[in-house]
Amino acid sequence: MKRRGITVLELIVSLVMSVFLVAAATSAYTSAIAFEKHNAAYLEANEARLNLERKIRSLLEGAYVSSSTTDTMTYFLGETSGSTADATTADTLIFTTLSAGLNDNELTSDDDFETMNQTYGPQGGVTEVEFSLTPVGDAGQDKQGLFLRTQTPGDGDPTQGGFEKILDPDVRSIQFQFYNGTGWDPTWGTSGVNLQTTTTTQNNVQTGQDGRRIPAAVQVTYTLASDPDGVTHSFIVQLLHSDVTAENPVAVTGTVGGAQ
Amino acid sequence: MIRRNSRSGGALLITIGVVASLVAIVLTATSTEQVTLRAISNRTAARRARMMAESGIQQAIATLASQSTSQTTQQDDWYQLGQTGATRYVVGRDSFRIQIVDAASLINVNTAPEAQLDRLPLTQEQIDSLLDWRTGGETPRADGGKDDYYNNLSTPYNAKLGALTSLDELLLVKGFTPKTLYEPQTDTFSTDPLPSKADGTQYTLYDLCTVDSVSSIGAGGGGGTGGAGGGGGGRLPNINTITQANQLTSRGISAAVATRIIAGRGRWTTYNALLGIPGMRIQDARILVDDFSISNAATASGKIDINTASDAVLESIPNMQPDIANAIVTQQGTGFTSLGDLFNVAGFQLAIARETLDSFTTNSQTFIVHSMGSAGDARCSLDALLSISANGAKILKITQLPYADMSKRWGWDDQTTTDNVLLEDATQQ
What we know:
- The complex is a heterodimer.
- Chain A is an alpha+beta fold.
- Chain A has three helices and nine strands; from the N terminus they run αββααβββββββ.
- Chain B contains 15 helices and twelve strands.
- Chain B is elongated.
């Protein structure tokens, strides 16, 4: 007899197999969608954080302090603003840098000098940079986070000037520590210029040539409002052009010692 | 014809359908992950490229550590290092290429006199403005600018009235833009352009200029006609301190010239003045240049190193003749151990010596490192200014360069010819 159709057993087996497969596929699909969603959010949060680190890093890597002991136009100042609970570790970093950089629009522009100044602002040379949670100017209501102030050309006044913007509104605290060749200093200062506005300045300023050196590395530690409590981020920027080494450290004076 | 059962193979179709959707889902998930991974690896590649470029600078520091401050030659290790970017230094998966350039082979825009700026690819406005920018006073030149001008810009600032800190500080000076700094210029004050590069293109300001160049002056033991000063490492006697004619005649200087030198003591602060003494012979000039100094300073800024300068840089020196510049370049292979050796160059007579010797040196204490790091598709190009002393080399400034094609701008070949493997790629083993 010619066999027609499929047996009940075959039908049941194939149905069961299909159900398993569909169930597996659905679960894989939902988890893929969930992963993508989560991933996008994570990336976005991370992206902002990594951009912040990249910006701090690139400006620090070009930090420049001339060796002249009479120069007041270049400096490297890591100080405490006195506005945070920890009044011994720097929460404000002000320095002069050669790495403010030019963007593609500026490089390819056919505009003349005055139009360039109007469109992009002054470019080139030594730029003064400040990272701080406390803006120099009036930021307006509810504006908080990490502020970046840049002034091109640097004018020798580390307390003000230039353009100020919020680099990352998510930053709630920030600390800078400075490697002196043997350990981490909680503050740093170069001779010639001082921040007159701060009351708790604890500069580790040396005299003479030693006072014109920049740290071998800067450790940046910060917390974000969007992170769970207790999460801190930290990264170290090595300043390749610093002459501070273990063999040639900056002598530590006074009471500053820093976390080792 | 037998009619086929239309339902046979139904299970197969269902299975294929399910498998296809499964594959699609897996592919979606993987590609999402790949995008994420690529974003992360791009970021790390950029960091790795920077670290590679920094490694290149470290390599340069190590090479310059033993460089003499009293003599540069084209046989020095630093000159050969990296074969003008043709060697690829491989560090694991990544690599860097380097070239060291003698900063004293370039024109120092902080010290170059106006007559030399006139020869550069600059407009009248740029020349006047640069001179106004780097010198004091509040009265601008005809096409220049001082505070009055800069204070009225959309974003105002003050004129520097001092030396430039970096070459791109020129962008703060009236008349300069990135294009005039980094691209060849045609509309220039000079109607007699400097010689072009080997590839036929014109030099840019970035190619020709620096803001830092330091060389030692008056150090003894650097060769010359010998027997002078305190010997190796000592200082050559300052010609203005010589009081006895026989201190000069004993070295071969004519009595008439010796008398005039002593009579004019204190006035000999330039070779132009010293070699202009009536009765001066080339042999006198050579002894004076090699055995005496005209300054008590140990170093000078802005002198041009005749052992490394290109013909374009040499020809920018006021009153320099192209054939003499070419002859100097030709002799760089053997090198000049002292400025007096210039008198061996065909056509280098007293008149040209008076005009040019004050601009020249045979050594350098400042070097520029071009370093390009590569990691994946990421590139990082750095210029570092290194200064050398008896204690070795150290970095004074680092600048990240704005263009992606810096290797081309540095005149490097697209392809490297040699691999120098510093560290094997562990992932290939």
